[in-house]
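tool=predict chain=A
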Amino acid sequence: MLKKNKTLKITIILILSLIIICALGFFIWANDYYHAEEMCDDMIQDDNSIKVIDNLTIVSPSVPNDTGIIFYPGAKVEAIAYMPLLEKLKSKGYTCVLVTMPFNMAIFDVNAADKIFDNLPDIKYWYIAGHSMGGAMASDYASKHQDKVDGLILMGAYIYGDYPPEKALTIYGTFNSNLEKDINYTQNIVIIEGGNHAQFGNYGKQKGDPDATISAEEQQVITVNAIVEFIELMYNTNAIFK
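tool=predict ok
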């Protein structure tokens, strides 16, 4: 009996030790992420129109239109790294909602968009967007909630789940062409010459990502113009059937 109790005690200690080691390893891994450039934090501090509520950063234009864009960040990227991109969309009249994900991983809160719609009742049309893993999770959400979103916008990502390509925009750089093997559709694809994977945000160089031959500013301007054209196309297409 004593021997069995001793064996059980050792087993419990080993299991608890393994759990602690795994938890510590995850904590270290999760805290090794890409930090936003200083300018991104300055944008939030200097702009009184930006509201931060829990894990949501709401970027509201002075004269908003009736369209909102929910944005899911890339994996292990500090959310505010996408503020320069969202500020450009704001200048076009779009209300943007940036989601800060648990451990900077959209996979841990795929349904984050659920709590946004009721909080902004003046928005009539909703698009969900995301970069990299954030794009994959945004796509997954859109495919399961097609009654809530009017379109999907992907940056450095491709459609994940059962979502109609004609209602999705896919944007990537020529230095991120490894995505092409997973894109089995031809509608609404914008390829940015000289663009790479990381420059949709402002968080510096990403491991394994080739250097772009255009600036992040240029890549984001092209991205925003593509998004504006896509949303206008979606609006005009839908208007035909109203």
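The two ends are 78 Å apart (CA to CA). The mean pLDDT is 90.
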